[in-house]
Amino acid sequence: MIGTSPFIGAGQFGLRAQEFRKKFLFQPEKMLKIMEAAYQAGARGMEVITAGEISKVAMIMKETYNDFIITGSTFPGPDPMIEELMNLESKIIFVHGMVSDRKNQKLFELIDDIVSRGVIPGIAVHNPISTLKFSFEHTIVKTYLIPINAKGIFMGDKQKLENMINDRKDCYFIGMKTLAAGKIEPQLAYDYIAKNNICSVSIGMVTPEEAKTSTTIALNALKSKL
Question: What is the pLDDT of residues 164-182, one digit of tens each?
Answer without folding.
Answer: 999 999 999 999 999 998 8
